[in-house]
């Protein structure tokens, strides 16, 4: 079955947006399965060209039979045949109307299914975007907290260093004073 989009390009796009290769491949695999399932459902409701041609040939052979009967019975039962012909025309019109109604119904169902899938995909993208935004916020908060902690530790180290330098100077001045 042919796909109408490039799965590898979608995997690459997802990877560029922060997904791992495995996550990207799983997402694309899920999308392909969803599309295949929807296409299977759509194909179940569709009439194939062969079936349509068979039905058309049956109708055409039925019409051909009616024409033969009209020629044979033209003299004796022409009026009865004319009324039967009218009935057949009405039945054909009804069948045609039913077929058109079914085709319209199938098209509407397919459009609805496609729109539902589009909205599901959009919702999935929105959820992924929200999760990514939340993760970015958490990372930013953690980074800010670490920067604050680092600055605090730097300040403490400077205090201890200054205290150590002054203590050493005091001791050195004390020894200097004792020797002089």
UniProtKB/TrEMBL annotation:
Keywords: Coiled coil, Membrane, Mitochondrion, Transmembrane, Transmembrane helix. The keyword Chaperone does not apply. GO terms for biological process: calcium import into the mitochondrion; positive regulation of mitochondrial calcium ion concentration. One of its GO terms (cellular component) is mitochondrial inner membrane. It is found in: Mitochondrion membrane. InterPro entries: CCDC90-like. Belongs to the CCDC90 family. This is MCUR1 regulator. It comes from Nothocercus nigrocapillus.
